[in-house]
């Protein structure tokens, strides 16, 4: 039987390009354009492999991966991203990824990566493999995201605040009360010693929680 693959990226053209690359070799069970849609679809469809980006709206790929590994521990996660920084690759594997490659290499590497993770192997794009291996030998590797000071829920609130969502919108998206959103936002500001939404947004971009776009 052909492996079932779910794709997640916030750019429609990227999703269509990936579909053309993979459709002859795998069953593509769904396309998600944000992190929350990805978690919902993955829970419902239970694919064998999920190919996801790091920078996605509503819920970034790293936090989505952490949720997915708890919900679907046997599903393989492959990050396909523009982030070539070794710290992002390290964080992706900490979040539960089995593969990491760059978008510019998708045409030549993605099928190979999927076959590798289905055999319980890890796949790392050759473009940054040496850097990752070298960094793993160091006692500590700086991590761009998430901040260890924040809980998963607080990171979710932070991302949505940085994306310009209103308190009411955030409450609806997360299915919590407006008061709870306000509580989380004030706690985040206090914990990070930030005092305005603009400062929160700048922090979220610097940490890779949201894209500069």
UniProtKB/TrEMBL annotation:
Keywords: DNA-binding, Phosphoprotein, Transcription, Transcription regulation. SUPFAM superfamilies: C-terminal effector domain of the bipartite response regulators, CheY-like. Residues 143-208 form the HTH luxR-type domain. InterPro entries: CheY-like_superfamily, NreC/VraR/RcsB-like_REC, Sig_transdc_resp-reg_C-effctor, Sig_transdc_resp-reg_receiver, Tscrpt_reg_LuxR_C, WalR-like. Pfam families: GerE, Response_reg. It comes from the Bacteria. The keyword Transcription applies. The modification 4-aspartylphosphate is found at residue 53. The keyword Phosphoprotein applies. Residues 4-118 form the Response regulatory domain. This is Response regulator transcription factor. The lineage of its organism: Bacteria, Pseudomonadati, Nitrospirota, Nitrospiria, Nitrospirales.
